[in-house]
Structures are given as structure tokens and as C-alpha cells.
Specification:
Elements lengths: L2 H4 L6 H18 L1 H10 L13 E2 L2 H4 L11 E4 L9 E4 L2 H16 L5 E6 L1 H6 L3 H12 L5 E2 L5 H12 L3 E7 H8 L8 E6 L11 H12 L5 E4 L8 E3 L5 E2 L4 E6 L14 E7 L8 E11 L2 E7 L2 H9 L3
Parallel strand pairs: 1-13, 4-5, 4-6, 6-7, 7-8
Antiparallel strand pairs: 2-3, 8-9, 9-10, 11-12, 12-13, 13-14
Helix pairs in contact: 2-3, 9-10
């Protein structure tokens, strides 16, 4: 199967299931850490995606997760606010480029027509960030007023005002604490689309999504706040516009596992652990058990918070 062609042409649930199961068998054979993990579980061969074992995301901190012998083109690393940094070794960067461009343009509008302003200081400082890579690629193809803004937040307001004068669509993409710093200037960004991502990174007390969005709406004079849900270990992202419910591209799917039994799933808006299928991860692992809590809705999924260390330790003990 030509997965690179197929994953971005998913057209039905059956089609998704077919590709996902095919990728599972490939990764079971060619990804050593995933193969060993499956061996220790001693589970029957899956016949549907709900039966596929999901690799705990923490393995990206301790193991090399790759599913082929191709040369590694780049390695993305997490921000490391929780300790060691995760590493995602990417052997085909074009998969990432295609994934984020299609998703962003679908959910947030055509990037080439926008002025994109990025407030991602900690990601820029640490380097090797998949988020910075994504936003940088979008900025390069966007309106020339687009830019990363580091220290002088008044530059955001100046570029925003120039863009509005030129009747351009403005998107402000920022880590949560940097957007809160921008609020101190009490700007009027009522015509911008504000996308928050990445949490406080240890710089401030964590807030619930509702608390954060209410504060940002008041401080930036915005009617709504959008969000991006992505991570170093994924090559795909989900987006939320206005209502806090995230939607995924067709090649990405969210399952909600029960907290006390990772092989059973929650339905009907019940909270549990977020399992992610990212078909774009064909060269690493497409089946990841995250440390996030969430619940499914009819039109997407909601982020409820994170497991603490004691909650997730049991997953790793399976492999120790």
C-alpha cells in the first residue's frame, strides 16, 4: 500500500480502519520498541482499531521510535517542561509539511492569504521544535507582514494595525503565557484570529481552558479564542474554533480510554485518557497513548487536563 498517498485521501471510516490496521502490522514488524511493547502485552491480533495497543507517549523520551531504515532527516524535541525532552525522529519531513498545511488551511483559513504573527518565545529559545518548524513554514508563504515576535510585544500591535489597514486577515499564534503577557498592553485585536497553544510551560499557574479563554478574550478584546492541539510526537494537529471542541483531519482519530483499564474505551462524553491515531506517523508510531485527559463529543473532543505521574506509571511498568 502506498500509505503516503492513501493517508491524505481517507474518505470513510472503513478506509481509515483499513489503512490503520495495515500500518499497525508494518510498525509491529519494523518498529523495535513497539514490537517489544506488543510482545509484553500478549494481546490477540487486532481486527479493528479499538483492539490496537497504544504506545505510551513517554517512550519517545527513552527510546528511538522509528519504523524504517531510512536516514533521519530531522529530529524534533519537546519543550521539556515536565523533565526530559521527547525526541521524534522524522525520516520524511514532507509528510509533516503536507499534514500541517492541509489541516491548517482547512480549519484556520488559507495561510498564504494571512498575516501570521507568532508568539512562541520558549520554543524558539530551546530549538528543535516541531511547532516552530510548522509556523515558520506557514509564515514563509504568508503575507510579508508575518513574523515571529520575541521581546517587543508592541510589534504585534503595530503589525496587526498595518495588516488591518491593508484589509488583511490576521492570525496571532501564541503560547498561553505569552498571550497573557500581551493582554497587559490591553490591545484591541477584535479583528484577529487568536490561536493559543502550549500551556504555561512552567512560567505561570496553569488555568483551565475556560479560565484562560475568558481572560484572553477580555484582555485582547476578542469575541472568541481558537486552540491548536499538537505535540512533538505527532505529525498532525487538531484545531478548535470558538467552542473548545477540537476537530481532527480525516487521517487522525481520537479514542478515549478508561483510566483504570487502557484496553476499554469511554463513550457518551465520559472523561478518560486520550489515545491518538495519527496515520501521518507512518515512519515512527501511529498509535500513541497520551498523558492528556479528554472526552468525546458528537462533533469532536475536549481537553480536560492531564494525568499526574502516578496515573501513567502503570503503563510504563508493562514494559519494565
Amino acid at each position: 500500500m502506498d500509505w503516503k498517498k492513501e493517508i491524505f485521501a481517507v474518505e470513510s471510516e472503513d478506509h481509515f480502519q483499513e489503512i490503520a490496521l495495515s500500518i499497525f502490522h508494518h510498525q509491529k514488524q519494523h518498529c523495535k520498541v513497539y514490537r517489544d511493547f506488543i510482545h509484553y502485552l500478549s494481546r490477540p491480533t487486532p481486527k479493528k482499531i479499538e483492539e490496537i495497543p497504544f504506545l505510551p507517549i513517554s517512550f519517545f523520551k527513552t527510546h528511538t521510535v522509528v519504523s524504517n531504515q531510512q536516514k533521519i532527516q530531522t529530529t524534533f524535541k519537546s519543550s521539556g517542561t515536565g523533565g526530559d525532552r521527547s525526541s521524534h525522529h522524522v525520516t520524511d519531513i514532507s509528510l509533516y509539511q503536507q499534514s500541517f498545511q492541509i489541516s491548517y488551511d482547512h480549519f484556520m483559513g488559507t495561510h498564504k492569504n494571512q498575516v501570521i504573527l507568532a508568539l512562541l518565545p520558549n520554543y524558539l529559545e530551546q530549538g528543535e521544535s516541531s511547532l516552530v518548524y510548522m509556523v515558520d513554514q506557514l509564515i514563509k508563504e504568508a503575507n510579508p507582514l508575518s513574523a515571529f515576535v520575541l521581546n517587543d510585544l508592541t510589534e504585534v500591535i503595530e503589525r496587526y494595525n498595518k495588516a488591518i489597514e491593508l484589509n488583511k486577515e490576521v492570525v496571532i499564534f501564541g503560547v498561553s503565557y505569552a498571550l497573557l503577557d500581551l493582554c497587559k498592553l490591553t490591545p484591541d485585536l477584535s479583528e484577529a484570529t487568536v490561536i493559543e497553544t502550549g500551556g504555561m510551560k512552567g512560567r505561570r499557574k496553569e488555568l483551565t481552558k475556560q479560565e484562560l479563554h475568558n481572560t484572553l478574550k477580555a484582555g485582547l478584546n476578542c469575541q472568541s479564542i481558537s486552540s491548536e492541539y499538537g505535540m512533538t510526537e505527532l505529525l498532525s494537529q487538531a484545531y478548535s474554533n470558538q467552542n473548545g471542541i477540537f476537530q481532527t483531519p480525516p487521517w487522525m482519530k481520537i479514542l478515549i480510554r478508561q483510566v483504570n483499564d487502557p484496553f476499554k474505551y469511554q463513550h457518551d462524553k465520559k472523561t478518560g485518557g486520550i489515545n491518538i491515531i495519527d496515520l501521518a506517523n507512518i515512519n515512527s508510531c501511529s498509535f500513541i497513548a497520551s498523558q492528556d485527559l479528554g472526552k468525546l463529543h458528537n462533533d469532536g473532543f475536549e481537553i480536560m487536563g492531564r494525568f499526574d505521574h502516578s496515573d501513567i506509571r502503570g503503563c510504563n511498568l508493562l514494559f519494565q
